[in-house]
Amino acid sequence: MIEYIKGQLTELSPTDAIVECNGIGYHILISLQTFSQLENKTDVTVFIHHYLREDEELYYGFASKDERELFRLLIGVSGIGAATARMMLSSLSSDEIRNAIIAEDINRIKSIKGIGLKSAQRLILELKDKIEKGGGGADISAIFASKDNAVVEEAVTALVLLGFTKANVTKAVAAVVKENPDAGLESIIKFSLKRL
User: Fold this and answer.
1) Residues 122 and 149 reside in one and the same domain
2) pTM given for the model
3) Dihedrals phi, psi of 54, to nearest 5 degrees
4) The domain that contains 93 carries what CATH number?
5) Of the candidates 132, 161, 187, which is a domain's last residue?
6) CATH number for the domain harbouring residue 174
7) Do the beta carbons of residue 187 and residue 180 sit within 8 Å?
8) Share of the chain above pLDDT 90, in %
9) Around Cβ 124, how many Cβ atoms within 10 Å?
């Protein structure tokens, strides 16, 4: 799976970008949020969601992992496809979408083209708990300002891949780092597992 593409931005429009990496130009579909962050840049890193179906293969790109994570939450809701999720991220910022879901602001969500009453209700029902518990963009670096963020992020990712929820993992890792500020990656994972 492709995590990100780092290279030279050769073309950019509000809906897509072409990033050249090692002589290959990747066509990437983007939201307006990402467009505004890529504007006036030449060397870029775009985080990728690889969309693969029987009849099509597309790359959706995001300027941040946070936006990509929210996109993945949105497409996990039945009835919300990749095109609709991209439209949502183009109409509102990631924070505005999260806040509207948490506040159960159906009218704000319905204001997005392609989202009707039932879709808005389903989004709130399926995502409110996940977003409140830190899904779709909990900022790990803010929690662990004292520790090397790369090590902490790696530990959190490893534990989430083992099947634990991100909210529980973040709590456990925070406690471990607080008690053992000099702990390495292996120790953080080992001690966190005991708390999960």
Assistant:
1) no
2) 0.68
3) -55, -40
4) 1.10.150.20
5) 132
6) 1.10.8.10
7) yes
8) 53
9) 19
pLDDT digits (tens, 9 = 90+) for 93-138: 988 998 899 889 999 999 998 899 999 999 999 998 888 766 544 4
Considering the domain architecture, whether residues 58 and 72 belong to the same structural domain is answered as: no
Q: How many domains, the chain? A: 3
Picking from 11, 40, 6, 10, the residue whose alpha carbon sits closest to that of residue 21 is 6
Spell out where 39-119 has E strands: 43-52, 57-62
Strand partners, 59: 50
Classify burial at 37, counting beta carbons within 10 Å of its beta carbon; exposed 0-12, middle 13-18, buried 19 or more: middle
Closest to 136 measured CA to CA, from 46, 62, 52: 62
The residue range of the domain holding 145 is: 140-195
Q: How many other C-beta atoms can be found within 10 angstroms of the C-beta atom of residue 139?
A: 10
Distance between CA 75 and CA 78 in Å, rounded?
Answer: 7
> Whose CA is closest to 70, among 43, 45, 37, 99?
99
